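Per reviewer request, we include the raw input and output of the structure prediction for the construct analysed in the revised manuscript.
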Amino acid sequence: MTKRVLIAGFKHETNTFSKLPTDLAAYKARTYYRDDEVASKMRGTATEIGAALDAAERHGWSIRHPIYANATPSGRVTKDMHDHVTQAIVDALKADGPFDGVLLCLHGAMVCEHDEDGEGRLLQAVRDVVGPDVPVAMTLDLHANVTDRSAELCDIMISYRTYPHVDQYEIATQACDLLARTMAGEIHPKVHVRRREMLDGADHGRTTSPGPMTEALATLDKLLKATPGTYAGSINAGFPWVDIHDTGPTCIVTGEGDNPAHAQIAEQVMEQIWRDRNKLTINLLRIDEALARVKTALAQGVSAPIVLADYADNPGGGGYGDATRLLGAMIEADLPDAAFGTIYDPEAALACKNAGLGSTFRLELGGKVDPAVQGGPLSLMGTVTAITDGKFAMEGPMTRGTRVDMGPAAVFSVGRIDIVIASARYQNYDRMYFKSMGIDPEKKKVLGVKSAHHFRAAYGPISSQIMVVDDGGGVTSRNYKDLDYKNVRRPVFPLDMD
């Protein structure tokens, strides 16, 4: 008999220290698809939804996909927005049911105005309709803050295992295959979750080099292989810029029935993560340190770009994307053959468009969302060297094929640096953020990117050196003690402990 499955996605990585609310407009500025548009836009992409659509065809499911919404990380999701998406899913469950299974593509770090556990609240609404016996599978980001409520309300829970997240398609495929076996009555999975008193851990989940995360995953896989009845295991490094009780790393194990041995696996892995809590694989530099190193490298000659990553103002973690400190230092240093992208400033993008290609004028750029935190605007004399509509499809390896709309965009060239200005907030983890603007990143000597780590997937292979800059002054800075935590459980590492 053909199985009927509802597939939906509602994703957000909430930074509770951001002043930007996440409403319907925020979702429509990035990804908001309804009904047939979900398949037409997402099929063929290296995403969870792309994988789910392929899995449905492979398993012969009859599917309904009422909504897929994904906003750039920012402040709390508004009650109206959460209610809106929840209602779209609930309405589809009621109108087109009954369903044999549900697959939800979520993030795991959504905080709402009315509930600090956005995913748990959505899952409860789904359970209220489908009841306790219909299997619910969910995929999560590696930086999820998994709550006990979410674990109890779903049957299958699997997170990405790579950071940068280049395995989204594979993780969703695994979740779909387990869902198919559950609907067929072959397995009866249960989710176990464990945590420690930590805001952040496992090297923030980095898997680009050997370290705490890769070592913990190896331990997890060894334990899974040695323990009967396990189906999947994940490690979530947590998303620390969230001031809620359950912020922090978790290990989740999906296995047959309520087996204490499966919970013990999660306990053992979390104990290892706790022991390794002070181990890091990256060295965060001050701006002046990074620029000094860049100048030394340039003097010696470089055969490939040096990449400077703006860690403290990463839009992929809720940063505003318009901090000017790193960009200003790069301009002052007069770096040769340099490019910076992107800086969020719709006013500046419009000014460039209105001035026209080739125009030279003084532009007040960036630093407008929260000048007291991010640094004020830069007053720059430069030339408009490109104007576009800001639309392109990413080339990968992360989320290959996904469509991006930066809104009206421009390149403003100041001295020897080309600055990509966007009208929407995006983390730069794909070379198309430059290439769509007529800039070949491989031919530049220095690249500045608004990103913390995802940029490595695209830019790592073409770089000669990578330097990650954190001078504080941003809502994604690793200087956690500078942030005003009030609701996280205490004591917690690293606020109160070594």
